């Protein structure tokens, strides 16, 4: 009887851990799905918010033609467009170029893996190497460009507070928005390494006569972050309606800081959940074995001696 009780406790504990882990996994899956749906809606809403399709860039060539012929999903195109904007390409051919690139890379690596497998190994290994080659060629370009895009977004988010502080300083000293951006683009660019190019292109758009509203919209879209678009909208509102810019920039800076604090708290909460799951999966079973192991061993020895 005493042998059955620890085993039952172990089973009950394992079932309890599986139940808790399953609930956490379902909750995280639900949140991830909601985040993807929200990102998709925002991407669809903001695809043509800045009239960037007229940007001049090299033709996509064969890769762009293949991407247009094989890609029909609007959500995929919107995701690729946002990704290419984040790395500095704003033309309408960029998302189709990426779609064609990953398909061509997958096919080329699949044929290479198939040829190597047939030449040096068995047909079964050739088939596996072909599948592995297609997967690598299909996934690696997207992953690599996504990594570059995320790195640039992080740099832009780090430099935006400094940009806002510099704009506040220049506006309080009597400079206009255009003069402030010209000054930042040509003289005070030491802390704005990533934003310098977008600021220079903003000045070029203004010099070409596109108007402040369209130029600022295009600048916000080039930043490829929500805070950049919001800052551009704030500047447009101030220039259109004549509101006080210094107070608006100060409030926006405080709101951005508070938003980042909330994002940091959310990230900490997610990390704590992940650590809890890891502890339950990898620390609780050994702990249970260490605690219950000696008792189970003694019970087995007692039953063995009785049987002997």
TrEMBL record:
Residues 164-291 form the Type II secretion system protein GspF domain. Its main location: membrane. The keyword Transport does not apply. The chain crosses the membrane at residues 6-26, 94-119, 125-145, 275-296. It is found in: Cell membrane. Keywords: Cell membrane, Membrane, Transmembrane, Transmembrane helix. One of its GO terms (cellular component) is plasma membrane. It is a multi-pass membrane protein. InterPro entries: T2SS_GspF_dom. This is Type II secretion system F family protein. It comes from Oleomonas cavernae.
């Amino acid at each position: 009887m005493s042998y059955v009780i620890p085993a039952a406790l172990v089973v009950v504990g394992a079932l309890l851990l599986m139940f808790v882990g399953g609930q956490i996994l379902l909750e995280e899956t639900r949140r991830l799905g909601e985040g993807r749906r929200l990102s998709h809606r925002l991407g669809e809403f903001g695809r043509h918010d800045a009239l960037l399709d007229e940007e001049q860039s090299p033709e996509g060539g064969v890769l762009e033609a293949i991407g247009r012929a094989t890609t029909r999903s609007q959500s995929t195109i919107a995701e690729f467009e946002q990704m290419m904007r984040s790395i500095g390409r704003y033309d309408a051919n960029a998302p189709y170029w990426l779609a064609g690139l990953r398909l061509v890379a997958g096919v080329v690596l699949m044929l290479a893996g198939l040829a190597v497998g047939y030449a040096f190994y068995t047909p079964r290994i050739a088939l596996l190497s072909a599948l592995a080659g297609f997967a690598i060629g299909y996934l690696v370009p997207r992953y690599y460009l996504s990594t570059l895009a995320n790195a640039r977004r992080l740099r832009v988010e780090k430099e935006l507070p400094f940009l806002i502080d510099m704009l506040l300083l220049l506006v309080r000293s009597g400079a206009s928005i255009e003069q402030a951006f010209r000054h930042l683009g040509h003289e005070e660019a030491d802390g704005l390494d990533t934003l310098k190019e977008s600021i220079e292109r903003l000045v070029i758009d203004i010099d070409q006569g596109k108007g402040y509203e369209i130029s600022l919209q295009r600048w916000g879209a080039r930043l490829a972050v929500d805070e950049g678009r919001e800052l551009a909208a704030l500047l447009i509102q101030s220039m259109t309606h004549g509101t006080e810019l210094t107070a608006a920039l100060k409030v926006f800076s405080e709101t951005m800081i508070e938003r980042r604090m909330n994002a940091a708290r959310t990230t900490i909460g997610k990390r704590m959940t992940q650590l809890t799951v890891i502890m339950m999966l990898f620390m609780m079973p050994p702990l249970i074995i260490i605690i219950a192991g000696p008792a189970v061993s003694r019970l087995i020895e007692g039953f063995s001696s009785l049987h002997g």
